[in-house]
Specification:
alpha/beta; Transcription Regulator spoIIAA; four-stranded mixed β-sheet; STAS_dom_sf; anti-sigma factor antagonist activity; STAS_dom
């Protein structure tokens, strides 16, 4: 897995490339923690366009990053989720929580 930091006009973005699994999940979490601590972004986005695999350790890391961002007052959003990664996040019930920008209102009827 490779992580690239990108500053978008509306958010600090972590671009994740490769597989997010037991051997890489802690690295992503620590990178996100350092980014939140050192940059204090208002919004933290994780771009999953190049993420090819995610296991339960990866899901746990994403949930921890979401919690850490929220605790520090940052808005969190996982975007560009597709394929097998999207399916595993949907099956485990975290897709909506991670991909809905934390400043967005939930859809009506929920």
């Amino acid at each position: 897995m490779h992580i690239t930091l990108r500053e978008d006009p509306d958010a600090t973005c972590l671009v994740v490339d490769g597989e997010l699994d037991l051997s890489t999940a802690e690295s992503l979490y620590e990178y996100a923690q350092r980014t939140l601590r050192d940059r204090s972004p208002r919004r933290l986005r994780v771009d999953a366009a190049r993420l090819t695999f995610c296991d339960s350790s990866g899901i746990h890391a994403l949930v921890r990053i979401h919690a850490e961002a929220t605790a520090r007052g940052a808005l969190f959003h996982l975007n560009n989720v597709h394929g097998a990664v999207r399916r595993v996040l949907a099956i485990t019930g975290v897709l909506t929580a991670l991909t809905t920008p934390s400043d967005a209102s939930p859809p009506s009827g929920r």
